[in-house]
Amino acid sequence: xxxxxxxxxxxxxxxxxxxxxxxxxxxxxxxxxxxxxxxxxxxxxxxxxxxxxxxxxxxxxxxxxxxxxxxxxxxxxxxxxxxxxxxxxxxxxxxxxxxxxxxxxxxxxxxxxxxxxxxxxxxxxxxxxxxxxxxxxxxxxxxxxxxxxxxxxxxxxxxxxxxxxxxxxxxx
Amino acid sequence: xxxxxxxxxxxxxxxxxxxxxxxxxxxxxxxxxxxxxxxxxxxxxxxxxxxxxxxxxxxxxxxxxxxxxxxxxxxxxxxxxxxxxxxxxxxxxxxxxxxxxxxxxxxxxxxxxxxxxxxxxxxxxxxxxxxxxxxxxxxxxxxxxxxxxxxxxxxxxxxxxxxxxxxxxxxx
Lengths: 172, 172
Prior knowledge:
The first copy, chain A, has 172 residues and is an alpha+beta fold. Chain A has a single domain (17-153), classed as 3-Layer(aba) Sandwich (NADH Oxidase), CATH 3.40.109. Chain A is 35% helix and 19% strand. Chain A has five helices and five strands, in the order H-H-E-H-E-H-E-H-E-E. Chain A has helices at 6-12, 26-37, 56-65, 91-111, 125-134, and strands at 48-53, 77-84, 115-120, 141-150, 167-169. In chain A, strands 1-2-4-3 form a four-stranded antiparallel beta sheet, with helices on both faces. In chain A, helix 2 (26-37) runs antiparallel to helix 4. The radius of gyration of chain A is 16 Å and the shape is globular. Chains A and B meet through helix 1, helix 2, strand 1, helix 4 and strand 3 of A and helix 1, helix 2, strand 1, helix 4 and strand 3 of B.
């Protein structure tokens, strides 16, 4: 497997929304999924749950209900990161933990040469309801975000987002 | 600068809460801070703001108001990641964006050999109020989380958090 320095991975990762339609392997998916488990969480509760989708008919269903999820049609996999409110009852912490997990998934995908994009779900009720209905999620499960992963159908240059106006030294 | 593969960084990073008290360099802090800017954000709004603290008297003040922030006393730097509600009015998205940024900061710190820990602020009103008061934050600024960074005073083995019960293939 190709290696990529973590600082390089963080600074060169971009949201990839065009895929070739080629599959991704189970070993690639395993690396990515395991990365999702490795984020920190409030009080180390690890309140995440992952729905892993590779079935084309489900990609079509997702594209139908989410206007920003059209790229699923050419994707290799989709991971819906959910939070379990039985494990972490504070929604704020739950969202933080799942978002750190999603960032790990995005970086791991990039690190092994795949493209990926975070498609937002929470806090848009239309999206969370649609996903809850489609996957018959129990009431204690909040779908936080969806990561669509695939072989890159586009390349993007590094985007330097540093902005000195947003850095406040010692105080505001 | 030492290099670390991104998959290795994700899988070996741990929360480090003991530091040696030695300073960290401006170039190290620059790498870490830039990582914070490089996360994705909803509609690419980049609603984060960073308070960067190196002053020991402020570390003492932080330790006084936050029982989980005692490690600041031996830290090299502290970065408080805040969200700007004028840029992203949906709190859910704001928290997601800032959490992805925090995860980048944690991974970058680990990648260059430093220790770091995420000290939770939002949604605990006591913590967000204390930080807002201490730093005279404007009303549109939510302090989401605090990353305390320093030279490691403890080493921790890799923790494999993979749990097959939390993986749901194709549906719940």
